[in-house]
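Deliverable D2.4 — example input (structure tokens):
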């Protein structure tokens, strides 16, 4: 058994980590931390009452190093890097779910804040297994991708070498309101969200440079990426629609199937994807349609799972030498 800790357990991604790891055959939760500590887990998450009986501690990196072999950081950006830096010095494996180690320093500081751990930034591997599986297996430090970049990049990957860079890529993305976090506010206020839909930060969202940077690293091409996210009146789930031009007319459906033929948790669909079929799972469903060189890609994931917690567990499995998809959820919340 590998001992694991969760720092930042009060939010939705922390809850999803607890749910997955509690019944994982190879991981044992030995430490749960929050900024306050000193409360029962059922007070943070009433749904866990009489199921997971663990104490919640005030987050302390030195204590984590004594009690765990690997730690999941489910913390906001900037806060995460403070813990990561100390945990790395204590030789603890880290899966960071924040944005702090996903980007190159120039991109990060432009869209987030000054970085306090430049020394370790380049040591992190971007945790998208379909691209960096071998590197993840051989690292102690993983930067878990964001939800929008996960769904977008998985849709784009089969075609990256055939995209006509003379034309912009347009990404229209829709997410359930759990992506706004647990803290009450306008972003998840029921009166404003129910029976409503709106875009936010169009063309300026922080996940846009993450998508663009990863495409540049894969292709050495500087694509124009126009990304527009939307809030929809759903609790969880994500549907991404991508529009682009290919360099020539080719069989995109066959390319998609061939690219993902060995991936257990990427499903190629014959019809446009929907949110419900991936909600509650680590699957990514992808559909493609074309009109000559014009391409439409539809990608669906659970924003809290494939876009955060279950993908983090997949990365931890790889880091620890376990079967890649061990313990991750595969049954959708249907009906």
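Example output (designed residues):
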């Amino acid at each position: 058994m590998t001992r694991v800790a969760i720092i930042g357990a009060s939010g939705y991604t922390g809850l999803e980590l607890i749910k997955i790891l509690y019944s994982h055959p190879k991981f044992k939760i030995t430490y749960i931390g929050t900024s306050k500590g000193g409360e029962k887990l059922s007070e943070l998450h009433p749904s866990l009452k009489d199921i997971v009986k663990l104490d919640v501690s005030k987050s302390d990196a030195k204590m984590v190093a004594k009690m765990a072999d690997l730690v999941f950081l489910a913390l906001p950006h900037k806060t995460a890097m403070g813990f990561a830096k100390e945990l790395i010095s204590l030789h603890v494996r880290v899966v960071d779910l924040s944005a702090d180690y996903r980007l190159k320093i120039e991109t990060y500081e432009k869209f987030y804040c000054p970085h306090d751990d430049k020394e370790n930034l380049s040591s992190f591997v971007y945790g998208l297994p379909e691209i960096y599986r071998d590197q993840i297996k051989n690292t102690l430090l993983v930067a878990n991708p964001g939800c929008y970049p996960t769904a977008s990049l998985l849709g784009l990957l089969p075609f990256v070498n055939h995209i006509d860079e003379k034309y912009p890529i347009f990404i229209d993305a829709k997410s359930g309101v759990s992506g706004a976090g647990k803290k009450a506010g306008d972003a998840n206020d029921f009166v404003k969200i129910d029976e409503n839909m709106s875009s936010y930060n169009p063309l300026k969202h922080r996940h846009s440079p993450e998508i663009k940077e990863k495409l540049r690293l894969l292709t050495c091409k500087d694509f124009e990426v126009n990304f527009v996210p939307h809030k929809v009146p759903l609790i969880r789930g994500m549907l991404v629609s991508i529009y682009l031009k290919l360099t020539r007319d080719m069989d995109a459906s066959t390319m998609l199937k061939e690219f993902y033929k060995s991936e257990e948790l990427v499903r190629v669909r014959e019809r446009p994807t929907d949110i419900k079929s991936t909600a509650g799972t680590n699957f990514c469903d992808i559909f493609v349609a074309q009109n000559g060189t014009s391409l439409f890609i539809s990608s669906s994931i659970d924003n809290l799972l494939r876009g955060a917690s279950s993908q983090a567990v997949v990365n931890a499995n790889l880091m620890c030498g376990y079967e890649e998809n061990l313990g991750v959820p595969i049954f959708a919340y249907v009906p």
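Residues 249 and 292 are 5 Å apart (CA to CA).
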